[in-house]
Amino acid sequence: MASVRETFRVPQGPVDLTAIDPRGRPTGPKDRAAAAKAVTELGTRLDAGQEALYAEGAGGGTRSVLLVLQGMDTSGKGGVISHAVGLVNPQGVQIASFKKPTAEERRHDFLWRIRKQLPGAGRIGVFDRSHYEDVLVVRVEELVPTDVWQARYGEIREFEAELAAQGVTIAKVMLHISPEEQAERLLARLDDPHKRWKYNPGDLDARARWDDYQEAYATALELCDSDAAPWYVVPSDRKWYRNWAVAAILAETLDEMAPAFPEPDFDVAAERTRLLRSTNPSS
Ligand code: AMP
Ligand code: MG
User: Fold this and answer.
1) Which residue of 67, 90, 111, 249 has the fewest C-beta atoms within 10 A of its own C-beta?
2) How is domain 4-279 classified at the architecture level of CATH?
3) Nearest to residue 213, comparing CAs of 73, 21, 101, 110?
């Protein structure tokens, strides 16, 4: 059976997102109950993997994980952070959200603010939006001249290859939703007073450019997918399926890294003897 990552990996060549069903369930649990059970098991695996990675980092290891989350408004980037990333010990996780750049950020190269948020050794970094906004919203809204955003695909490839060479294991996930599902979720944000704070009138402007965004996503996925920094497309109209899929991708990624607990830099037997003497000085 193909691994979860193989199943969700964006196909090689030109990307046609309309060929990927946002309600699809190409692998894994068939219903909510099965997903809940699977997620509990994934939690155990993720927890063990994260702790080993953290220990490896504490012992001088330099490796880390970077999970990039992208998707249209309401696709569930926040939901994935609470329900999938939330399965691991928060002490080992570094979350960064990228909004409209500040005046200071705009004065620098588009990767400047990204580099500042890269995970430290032994950590799992999570990007809620990322440098990809600079070839998504920036391209659709024509926020910079065409030649500038066009050059960014190559710059992103180089940047990610450089990170991979430094020991950052990258997994990039597009949360793929349908416009119908987005309409329902936006309506819920308008109608439910407890969700209203998440609503942003600007979301409707992005929604109006749906096809342009899908095209921009397709180009980014096609040009910036590599073995060093793979792109995965996760059907996200069903929240339980989406959360399971991202947790499974993360668990497989950690399993493959097989982080190693460090060897002690002290004499264990000698320390044991010393400890036993100290706890029971009369013996
Ligand atoms: P949200 O993630 O819903 O809080 O919204 C963040 C907003 O910031 C979205 O509308 C993004 O498109 C926007 N944004 C993020 N990065 C950039 C960028 N580099 N340039 C312009 N807008 C951006
Ligand atoms: Mg939003």
Assistant:
1) 90
2) 3-Layer(aba) Sandwich (3.40)
3) 73
